[in-house]
Amino acid sequence: MTRAAHVLCLALVGCGPELLVVDSVETSLTASERRARAEAIRDVAAEAGLTNGALLGGIAEAETGLAHCWSEATWACQGPHSASCDGPVIAGAGDGPCSLREGGLGMFQFDGGTFEQTLARDGEEILLLEGNIRRAVVFVLDMVVRSTHVDIDSREDALAWINTIPIAPGHPDYDAWIDTVTHHYNGCRPTSACWPERRARYDGLTLQMATEFGDDFWGEPAPAPECEPLPPAGGVIEEASACYSEAGGASGWRIVPDAGHGGLRWTYAWDGDQPDNYAVWTVALTEAGRYAVEIYGDDSGYFDATQARYTVRHAGQETKLIVDQSTLDGFEAIAELEFAGDGDEWVRLDDNSGEPLDAQIQIGFDAIRLTRIGDPTLGPSPRDPVAVTPEDAAMAGGCTSTGRPSVVGILLVLGVFVRRRSCRDREALDRQMD
Q: What is the structure's pLDDT at 386?
């Protein structure tokens, strides 16, 4: 049994300065389980670019003593079911009776109101251990940007600053970090009576996390997994694999682990000149050849964009396609293309489909599949790909020669005119999602 000093309010920026209750509670995590939990924080944060994981670990230690599951801290409330726990996730006990279902969720205690409101804001991924950590990285970057204790204007600068902070009380950057966490994560203002005690708490537990597992622990993140090449017959590239990457405004991404083809990501489509969010599926092939490029979608409600813009790089050239995601029913072929297997081939999907942001149309990012075409030694293809013709671009919801609805139109003119909308409108919607 491990004892951890613990603020009982347990709410992410939800504990008002008037709540001053501090106590020491027990978690059931053993020393080896604590190390495994710290390794998860270190490695997941590193995958997101945050290499100074002890700072994030200090927050988790202060919030829940590294507990993520209710079974690890049964003094807390029971949250929704978590696959990481095989039972309820931990929920904060400081927002009133557990029956209100209003406590923060998971190790980093995300709290947007009721459980349902929190999941609507932060996504169901926070119920998973890794998802809770990933969301925490995004949150602390935004926390630093809005902090009154540092002058940082972007997530990129926030990440660069966090990664260089020495864990050394008295150093101006470290002190500014502890001030920022106490003020903007916990909600205790510097002028409030809670400030000395809570600031000392975050300071002490951060120092504890920095030394508990040895001097080199936080400086040795696990190597990132490599993108494994597909066999000659092709295969599926999941959005959760090492062959997938995404970029853009991190707060705009939402992850749904129990939908689509083994989970999916989505964001809102919009009509900006440049994408705000985009994803790339790296196509690593062991053998050159002609392949059908297939994308996954369904009627789950996450694939509503009718003008999704895909770009496929293959054999030294790029083919641009427009796909009506709302008609997808499982894997649908969007093109047959020659691939060189030269290591510089990919499929990219941008969120600027040309559809208005205020329509809140969801654009889905899920698995893609490549299927080898025309090689008799590999057997027949599992399905016939859609023929991509110029007529498809001119047909809105028309039919191909096979008689089934067409989901593809070739983007024939690169100079497509879309109504310009400022990034400020996009960021405003992202803040609503947060």
A: 40
Query: In whole angstroms, what separates CA 134 from the centre of its chain?
Result: 6
Residue 15 has pLDDT above 60, yes or no: no
The pLDDT tens digits of the residues spanning 135-174 come to: 999 999 999 999 999 888 899 989 999 999 999 888 888 9
Residue 131: how many CA atoms within 13 Å on its side-chain side? 26
Structural domain spans, the chain: 2-219, 234-433
pLDDT tens digit sequence for 46-101: 999 999 999 999 999 999 999 999 999 999 999 999 999 999 999 998 778 999 99
Q: Could you tell me the two tokens for 370?
A: 């490549």
- Give the integer Cα–Cα distance in Å for 171 and 361: 47
> Please, which pLDDT band fits residue 27 given cuts at 50, 70 and 90?
confident
Residue pointed to by tokens 């708490």 = 201
> At a CB cut-off of 8 Å and minimum separation 6, what does 196 contact?
none
User: In the structure, what pLDDT confidence band is assigned to residue 377 with cuts at 50, 70 and 90?
Assistant: low
Residue 109 C-alpha from the chain's centroid:
17
CA distance 129 to 103: 17
Rounded Cα distance, 23 and 194, in Å: 14
Give residues with Cβ within 8 angstroms of 396, minimum separation 6.
Answer: none
Helix, coil or strand: residue 223: coil
Asked whether 233 and 290 are in contact (CB, 8 A), the reply is: no
CB 55 within 8 A of CB 62: no
The CATH number, out of the four listed (3.40.50.720, 3.30.2420.10, 2.30.110.10, 2.60.120.260), of the domain defined by the range 234-433: 2.60.120.260
Whole-angstrom distance, CA of residue 110 vs CA of residue 121: 10
